[in-house]
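The data layer described in this paper is built around a simple, fixed record for each protein. Because each token names a local backbone shape, the row as a whole describes the fold. We quote a single record here, exactly as it is kept in our systems:

***
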Amino acid sequence: MSVDSIFSHIAWQKYEIGSVPFPLASDYWPHGAVAKSFGILRDGPPIPGINERAVFVVNKQGKVTYARLYELGEVPDIEEVLESLRGLN
């Protein structure tokens, strides 16, 4: 999920990453409401108004079971995220 519009997500897939087999969620309006609720909407430099790069895993009961922030240029460790998903029941 990002604060980008749905149109940005479509263009990103078309021109950058290719089609993905899952929906991309947009936190565009009200701008950054979900990012704000998770405490990851940037208020200041270097790019105010975007969300931090983060991964959250939420279980069926709505409890956050995994959370990690990354630098904007950093790619999340997919194995670490998958491991946290394997731990869900």
